[in-house]
Amino acid sequence: MAGRPRGLAGLSAIILVVFFCAGLLAPVAAPYGLEDMDLMSRLVAPFTSLAHPLGTDELGRDVLSRLLYSLRLSFVLAVTGTLLGAIVGTALGFLAARFGGFIDDLVNTGIDFTASLPFIVLALTILAFLGTDVKVIIVIMAVYGWDRYARLARNLARSAYTEGYAGALESLGIPTRRILLRHILPNIASALVVNMTLNFPGMILLETSLSFLGVGVQPPMSSLGTMLGFGRDYLTTAWWIAVIPGVVIVISTLSMSLLGDWVQQKLDPQSR
């Protein structure tokens, strides 16, 4: 039984590496440009043309090329949002644990507010006020997971101060910043990594949902959610426009979930 999860994790890692490399090398690997159109080759079905192995869309654009560019943008947004959320959440959790009082109450209020509100409503509200720029989308994706990191960092840092060794280091004159970064952060790094791997699929789905609703990534840029949204009007006549990016979304999120479960089993002793 132990070999099967390990094998699934290995397969998931290979799939994610392939997707990441394909997106990273999109400008070189894509046979056509993102917006290259051939109106004489509109709605070519997949696997029927060597020139367009995954078919074309309603404007004659190559689906394979757009898929590679979309993978690139979707993964960049998800990775950036995950890292920013982890950094901001961990920093706020450390501040709450170290200073307590009003700062602790403020951070806890923010955590409870973010956790209690349907996030898609909050995301749509932010987009309505700030627009649909890519930078705004990255901020939204960072906000999506910050509360988990903040709660984790706060609780573990408070334990360090409760146990006394953090206070003992402060009494020796060691700066608070060094205590947090050099002594407490390494002890919670594994838990943060587990949260990041488990949070990544949600980032992909969040970007997909926003783009599918038309408030995420805007043309001429393209993401997996954008391709899915444009293809929904052609499900009965050109299913591949929506189905192919949809399959990639399912495979990438499932692979990351399986890999995250394996990482949790390896790094979190309580899950074993």
UniProtKB/TrEMBL annotation:
<dbReference type="Pfam" id="PF00528">
    <property type="entry name" value="BPD_transp_1"/>
</dbReference>
<dbReference type="InterPro" id="IPR035906">
    <property type="entry name" value="MetI-like_sf"/>
</dbReference>
<keyword id="KW-0813">Transport</keyword>
<keyword id="KW-0472">Membrane</keyword>
<feature type="transmembrane region" description="Helical">
    <location>
        <begin position="117"/>
        <end position="144"/>
    </location>
</feature>
<dbReference type="InterPro" id="IPR000515">
    <property type="entry name" value="MetI-like"/>
</dbReference>
<protein>
    <submittedName>
        <fullName>ABC transporter permease</fullName>
    </submittedName>
</protein>
<feature type="transmembrane region" description="Helical">
    <location>
        <begin position="12"/>
        <end position="34"/>
    </location>
</feature>
<dbReference type="GO" id="GO:0005886">
    <property type="term" value="C:plasma membrane"/>
</dbReference>
<feature type="domain" description="ABC transmembrane type-1">
    <location>
        <begin position="71"/>
        <end position="260"/>
    </location>
</feature>
<keyword id="KW-1003">Cell membrane</keyword>
<feature type="transmembrane region" description="Helical">
    <location>
        <begin position="184"/>
        <end position="206"/>
    </location>
</feature>
<feature type="transmembrane region" description="Helical">
    <location>
        <begin position="238"/>
        <end position="263"/>
    </location>
</feature>
<keyword id="KW-0812">Transmembrane</keyword>
<dbReference type="GO" id="GO:0055085">
    <property type="term" value="P:transmembrane transport"/>
</dbReference>
<comment type="similarity">
    <text>Belongs to the binding-protein-dependent transport system permease family.</text>
</comment>
<feature type="transmembrane region" description="Helical">
    <location>
        <begin position="75"/>
        <end position="97"/>
    </location>
</feature>
<dbReference type="InterPro" id="IPR050366">
    <property type="entry name" value="BP-dependent_transpt_permease"/>
</dbReference>
<keyword id="KW-1133">Transmembrane helix</keyword>
